[in-house]
Structures are given as structure tokens and as C-alpha cells.
Amino acid sequence: MSEKHYDEEGRVIRENRSQAKREREHIKIFARELLKLPAHQYPLLPIDETLQAALVEGKRLTGNALSRHLNYLTRLLDEQGYEEILAAHEHVNHPYLHSPGKQQRIQGEIARLLAGDADIYGELLGRYADLDLQHLRQLVREAQKLLAAATAEVDDDAPAAPSNAPNKYQRRLQKYLQGLALFYEE
């Protein structure tokens, strides 16, 4: 047990457990996020084998068992240095990581969206965790309108060279897709 603390009158000062629970809530949310990671990424984090095994075990639990296990994971994360593990996780799984492969994939997705490919929406729903389909379609419609207007302008002014620069909505579309978190694949 921890050492007891006393006030000026000699009464025991008790720990505010509700406050401590509120302070650990962000660690619990992070533990839930770690459970979404594929198991092969756990060795990339600065965690010991006990926590790795607990995370693997947590993947198969549901209901009350998962709730109790999250409390256990929260305690383990707190003991092993939550801030350091969080920093490593953000470095490994940063949603705004701009790798060339990601950029090329997103450019291909945007090209298919603007070309009117109906199959791309199902693929995007399967790839991105928090995809807002209504917002995506709105951005695509606006980008297509601007492209049609630019094409009509170029046809009217024959000497002007067509611009391949992305319009405002294409840039918004790219920024939106880059910011989405991917579903983790096992």
C-alpha cells in the first residue's frame, strides 16, 4: 500500500479515485487504439513482452472481459511510460505520413473519382476508417464542375494552354484523403 498522508489536524488525506480514473481515461483510449494495430507492429513500440502478450490477448476479448482487460492494459501502459509509447506509436503510425507510395495511391484514387468510376467508392469505404461518403462526393462534384468549366474555357480560347494544376477542390480532396486513418490489415 502507499504511504498515508495527513492534513494539519491529523486526518488521513485519501486519494481521489474518481480524479485518478479521469486522468487515466486518455491512456485507456490509447490502449483501445493499440488493440486495433496488427500484432506484427507491436515489436516496433518500446513495450515489453508482457504488454505485447496482453495486447494480443485483448484482440480476442469482447464485452465485460474487454472492459476489465482495458483497465489492465491502462495500468501496464502507465507503468511502462505512456508518453514514450505514445510518441513511438505516433512516429510509426502517423496519419499524415507523406510517403511516395501513399501519394501515388491517393493521386490514382482522385483520378478514378474524377473520371466517374463507381467502383472506387466501395474500395475507399474498405480502405479508410472514418470516410464521410457525402463529403467525399460533394468534393468530387465540385472538382468536376471546375474541371468542366476550365475545359470549356480552354475550348473558347484556343491559344491558351490547358493548365494541369489541381483546382481548389482537388487539393481539398487530396488533403481529406491524406488525413484519413487507414483500416489496419492483419
UniProtKB/TrEMBL annotation:
GO terms under biological process: ribosome biogenesis
Cellular component terms per the entry's GO annotation: cytosol
Pfam families: DarP
Highest taxon of source: Bacteria
Alphabetized UniProt keyword annotations: Cytoplasm, Ribosome biogenesis, RNA-binding, rRNA-binding
Keyword field contains RNA-binding: yes
Gene3D superfamilies in UniProt: PSPTO4464-like domains (1.10.60.30)
Coiled coil: none
MF GO annotations: rRNA binding
Listed NCBIfam families: PRK05255.1-1 (NF003593)
UniProt xrefs under PANTHER family: UPF0307 PROTEIN YJGA
Protein name: Uncharacterized protein
